[in-house]
């Protein structure tokens, strides 16, 4: 039986809702618990994950041993301070913040820790998740967590130092690809016989769908380019023109990620003076 048969989520912004929905596929909606600050957050949970339960933050650790903290670094000290009285060495605490070193989180709790980054599409059982196992998370615990993640994503285990770049590729990637497709729709309006936007968007969407199917079938990106781009043809001309612009867009994403992390230093999360470890009452 899995150690992590129920999941608790703190914070229901975009990442929190995505992971609440995804873990609902893994453990069942009735085994998803969440703590939110506003009635609007509770409404979003009930709409997105019917059957999930909203519980007060101090009680969350009593319902689930897998806790996913989808809150800002600035809010983590308060959140952990509220959770700590019921945290045990059996609780796996997960952060979604690349800017928080796992060693810092590990110093603030008794049990294993990890970092998890979702991506758009997880709520429908698609897309990548990035997992960074942290201190005290055993190989068995990692495999159990990966088993849950496979229910709604394609999980990848990465090193903590790879988090920023991997997040930009996996998490920002769908939006940047959609933005490129949107630019194609806009550019065709300048042609001699422009298509209606809805038709143009459907054609581009089918191209993305076909690309996805080809890649799922084993084709590599270079295979697709070589199959379509004939030297001197229109596809080759488009690739030549867009190459430097696409590279620069990714560089901009990488720079912004680095700047955002520098602007949001990791908080101090250490337990309060005199805090003593507790044991799991159900152990």
Structural topology:
Blueprint (H helix, E strand, L loop, with lengths): L6 E4 L3 H14 L4 E4 L3 H10 L4 E2 L5 H4 L2 E4 L6 H8 L8 E4 L6 H7 L4 E5 L10 E6 L5 H11 L4 E4 L5 H8 L2 H16 L8 H20 L4 H8 L5 H30 L20
Helix pairs in contact: 7-11, 8-9
Could you walk me through the main structural features you see in this protein, from its secondary elements to its overall organization?
The structure is a single chain. The protein has 283 residues and is an alpha/beta fold. The chain has 2 domains: 7-159, 3-Layer(aba) Sandwich (Rossmann fold), CATH 3.40.50; 173-263, ProC C-terminal domain-like fold, CATH 1.10.3730. Helices cover 48% and strands 12% of the residues. The protein is built from 11 helices and 8 strands.
Number of strands: 8
CATH superfamily of the largest domain: NAD(P)-binding Rossmann-like Domain
Mean pLDDT: 90
Q: What structural class is derived from the secondary structure elements? A: alpha/beta
**Count of separate DSSP helical elements:** 11
Query: How many individual domains?
Result: 2
Name the CATH architecture of the largest domain: 3-Layer(aba) Sandwich
H/E element order:
EHEHEHEHEHEEHEHHHHH
CATH class of the largest domain: Alpha Beta
Runs in which pLDDT lies below 50 for 5 or more consecutive residues are 272-283
Distance N to C terminus: 14 Å
Radius of gyration: 22 Å
Question: How are the strands ordered across the major sheet?
Answer: 3-2-1-4-5-6-7-8
At CATH level 3, the topology of the largest domain is: Rossmann fold
Helix content: 40-55%
Strand content: 5-15%
Largest sheet: 8 strands, mixed
Q: What coarse outline follows from CA principal-axis ratios? A: elongated
